[in-house]
Give the backbone structure.
Amino acid sequence: MVSPPEFRKIAHEFVDWMADYLEQVEQYPVKSPVTPGAILRQLPEHPPSAGEPMETLFADFQRIIMPGITHWQSPNFFAYFNANSSYPSLLAEMLTATLGTQCMIWETSPAAAELEERVMDWLGQMLGLPAGFVGVIHDTASTATLCALLTAREVATQFAVNREGLTGGEKLRVYCSEETHSSIEKAGKIMGIGKENVVKIATDPSLAMYAARLRAAIAQDGEDGFIPMAVVATLGTTSTTAVDPLPEIADVCGTHKLWLHVDAAHAGTALLLPEFRWMIEGISGVDSFVFNPHKWMFTNFDCTAYFVKNVELLVRTFEILPEYLKTNPLGDVKNYRDWGIPLGRRFRALKLWFVIRSFGVRGLQEKVRSHISWAQALSKEIIAHDAFELMAPAPFNLVCFRYRPAGDENTLDDLNQRLLTNLNKSGKVYLTHTRIRGCYALRMCIGQTSTTPEHVKKAWNFIQATAAEMELTS
Ligand code: PLP
């Protein structure tokens, strides 16, 4: 057990460690080099029967856990999409953990409910969403998308599935592009329509959904006895950040009265910049919209912003009121337990409030704009390079490319796989890969809070040098 005076002393030491860690994070290998099982083997099979001193625990944290950590906050982290953090967010998380509130209903922490209402309103304004959109914070985009599709299912069936369950004859269908994130298919499985009824629409050369094919697929399915219920449009696909054409898709949804959900998990952050608002032309035809401040908006994982046009439909889908949750507030309040899946909710609004106030909208815009401009500059260098190839348009901060020296085209996938392995093994950078029209490509996402143009330059030089060295030694 930790006594109050011990807590004060140890917490100060931890804060020093945290500050040192973040200042020195570049010195760690970005991707953890440990082999599978290496951490597990060091952990006793049975829990301790007697309590252990915090010094021992902290020593084990440093000895056992730290080598198995991949350093997401490193400025040389260019993998996946970021999960960037920042000092204001981290400080708020310290307060959140200290309060230990459970924010399921207004009464269990009125400030949490009302702050959430206000910051989501701010966020909607910051992204340029229409005034009628109302927001709620979820843990992840996967959860928010599931909520969107569950609501769409209930709207399509006049809430019959909520009442009676799926009877087997519904033949409901959801549409998205072949580049859509796997969370859409997962939602299809969870919500009971089956992944085969998540229809993947072909994409154009920029890897964005062909709206005409969407229209044709929906019309054909209607004739074949299916019930189209929703379309998911992606603004910034996971593989290459392609942007589906929202106005055309909204038009199709309008014609067929389908729920339109927008997944802008990563690239939604770019809407902070007026010059990217072209992405949400057609937003008036959208029913729900999700983006992740925990990806590229300097807010610790987890924090997903989910917006809906019609809150009543959302709440009707999820509301449930057992006796033990009945409260008698004095006025009109928001009980967010009915706005999503879990009853219990973390106090996530605090970190968002801290981030928005500490950076200011202008501060956020400057950082995001910088990331995009560095990615654009890198794309140009790749295009100009004889032995590298840009593999997809790079509208935001993600650059997809491959090494393509003169020679056997059939070995390019293997060559690039080996290049990625060598880069990541070095510990100096961490990148990930995708396949674009079947070809293996490296993905470099420039969105870490402490990344500078020098980090990007150093990484690009290192990529070129590593590739050249592989040529010499092969
Ligand atoms: N949608 C897109 C476009 C994504 O890129 C991702 C994750 O990278 C997700 C959804 C899932 O996000 P989350 O981990 O918040 O569920």
Residues 81, 140-142, 181, 183, 234, 237-238, 263, 265-266, 292, 304 surround pyridoxal-5'-phosphate (CB under 6 Å). The chain has 14 helices and eleven strands. The first helix runs from residue 4 to 24. The radius of gyration is 24 Å.
